[in-house]
Amino acid sequence: ISKKKYSTNVDERNYLTVFEYKLNDNNWIIWDYSTGYVFFTGLWKSCGNNKTDIVKLVENFPNLSNAVKRVRGGFLKIQGTWLPFDIVKNLAKNFCFNIRYCLIPIFG
């Protein structure tokens, strides 16, 4: 797990301070330790899901729409859907079975 800082204009600080955990060659779990938000797109894709299906997921769970933060523009690695840590942890129980052991350092 490494600590990084990414510039972005979607946050009042103009940057995100994150912990990164590499799952495989192309996917990372990124957690903004200042806000508690987790980069859900990376976790979703690491399980073999299509990132466009995140829209369907949010539509199926209306309570998620108020919690979603979307990052567009800026550094490509942080672009996508961000959700609070507790929500991501609960959602991961439903679709991350094949990488469950890789997630222990993040979710316990």
From TrEMBL:
One of its GO terms (cellular component) is SBF transcription complex. PANTHER family: ASPARAGINASE, TRANSCRIPTIONAL REPRESSOR XBP1. It comes from the Eukaryota. Coiled coil: none annotated. Residues 5-108 form the HTH APSES-type domain. InterPro entries: HTH_APSES_sf (IPR036887), SWI6-like (IPR051642), Tscrpt_reg_HTH_APSES-type (IPR003163). Signal peptide: none annotated. This is HTH APSES-type domain-containing protein. The lineage of its organism: Eukaryota, Fungi, Dikarya, Ascomycota, Saccharomycotina. GO terms for molecular function: DNA binding; DNA-binding transcription factor activity, RNA polymerase II-specific.
